[in-house]
Structure formats: C-alpha cells, structure tokens
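request received
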Amino acid sequence: MYHRKSGRLERLEEFSGPQGARDALRERLRVENENVDPDVEVVSLNSDSEETLRRTHSRYFDAALV
Amino acid sequence: MEVVPSEASVAITEGHLSATVADVTRPWSNRQMRALGDALRDGTPIPKGCPTYDEVVLWYVDLTVMIQDRISRIDWSPLLGGEAPEITSRVKTIGTLQDKLRRTPEAPLQTIRDIAGVRFEAMMSTSVQDAAVQAICGLFEDEAAAVVKDMRRDDHFGYRAVHIELRFHTIAWRAEIQVRTALQGQWANMYEIAADILGREIRYSSPEEGTVEYGVVTAMRGISTETVAVAEERYDAVTMQEILVEDLARLGNSARLQMEQRKLRQLRGEAEPLTVSLTSQLERITSLLQDIRKSGS
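response:
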C-alpha cells in the first residue's frame, strides 16, 4: 500500500511460492475493496526479489514504511 | 454462460510453460468482456452473466507470470554480459484500468494491451535494447503476433522505452512487455514521483501553457528526450566500437586495431562523463521531488 501524496509505503507484504502472485493479487483486491482513500495505491508486483523491485519500482520505496 | 473459476483456467507448472500459454482459453466471450469494460468505464453495475474485475485479473495474473517466467529463463548473458535483466510484472489496478477505458472509450476491455504487464530493464545500449526486443518477440512467435512500439524517438509525453504488444492467436488475449534501459527506467521513476505531486494526467497530457507545472513538466520531458537520448546515443556508439575492436583483435588486424582503439577511448571520453552526470542529475531531481512531496503531505 502506497500513499501517492506523501510517498509513504504504508504496507509491504511478501507472498512467495508457486501461488505467490495469485495470493498477492487476492490480497491486493481485498485491500483495494476496503480502501476509501483515493490517494492510496494498492499494487501487487511479481519479482524474484524485493531488491529488484526497490530498483525497478523505486517510487514505492522512497519513503520509509510507516 | 457459467463463469469458469480462474483456478481451473491455467496452472503454472514447471517445465510446461509453453504448453499452458498455447492451450489456455479465455473463460469469457468478447461480448462479456466488452460489457464488463463498459460497466467499469461508466461506473455502472456489472450486467448479469459477466465476470467481475476480480475474476478477470485473477485469470490474467497466471498468464502474466508465465510470460515473465519464460523471459526470465533465457540466458541473457550473450547479450547483456554480466548485467542480468530485472524482470517484473503486474496486472493493472482497477483505477488505472478505468482511467484507460475512459481515455479510449472506443477500445473494448479485451483489446486493452497492458492489463497484463511485464517489465524488462537492464543496463544496456539502445542497440542491445533492440536485440532484446527481437529476442523476446522470437520467444513468443509461435503463439502471438508482436506489435513493437518504439517510443525512443517518438516519445510519449517524455516517456521513452520500447513496448512489445503480444496478441495471442488462440486465446484472444494481449499482454505488454516494456523493455527499458536503466536510464529510461530511472527517468520514468522520477517522472512517476512528479505525477504523484502534479497529478497523474501529466503522463498523458500537458499542463496549461504558462503555468509553473507546464515549466516543470517541459523541463523534465526535455531531460528525457534530449539529454537521456544523447547520452544513450553516445553509449551506443561506445558499445558498437567495442564490438568492432574485439573483432579486429580476433582477426589480428593490428594497424586498424590501434586506430579503432584510439577512437574507442575518445568515444568513452565523450559518453561516460555525460552518463555519470546525468545519473547524478536524475538522482538529485528525484530526491528534490521526494522532499517536495514530503513537505506537502
């Protein structure tokens, strides 16, 4: 969960294993359905590691986790 | 029509990736997909018998990961040397999908090319980027028609990259693969932060002329279309010259080798300081944007 206006990464959760992408997406959809703040972006990204995502999607990791 | 549970539509099985992409059939007709797209665009209830957004993206995610996995399995070292590509994927969020459906009301949901998106990023020259694009297209040539969109010369509001749209033959399904150099990716990440501050629409349109926002956006786009483009041209010239020097060394052509080695040193002297300075400039602007965002929140 990422707050666009503040740049805060509000929640980061890793889902691993062969069903990881699907589990992450399910959780994304669940959180997205509950979210009422239009500035909050809920994303699920698939990668071999968090380090890779920190480089390729650095926008989400600029500010520390709340 | 009964909605087939997405779990049944495809399974990711090690070693059977080729078979599964080709064998998958989409559980919903074009008419159902179009009706869902219309409802998402208009914000109206989804008609009875149509899938929900959640069902559709859960079906898409398996195929997205399959494409990502197939690209990841290639040995990229002959092209990229020691620089392994960074390969990621995602399915489009409902908000960005609705934005796109509203921007392109004539396009039915099933023709949106980037519901499934894979990103391939590496420290590479633009010639190597071309070769990577060809390799990826070749990887899927039996199953899909590839439409390549080169946005390096014809940028999209400053955004430069090469995108491959895969149109699968058997499953009426599309996916987009973004192929970016490290510099193109760095600029794009910086611009995304600017979009968080100035509004997401700067990715698809220009602010009103004469405003501060217009000045900021124009300057940032100029960095991409002018400075990054020039730095990449110079880096590419170095890469091509390195190949020539390696070939001459292999052939034992020492007279020409010395001349081309001198040229290589000169090209490196022109390319490397610009790339270093540009990388640092992009980091600095990104950091300033982060500060602006923090102070405004």
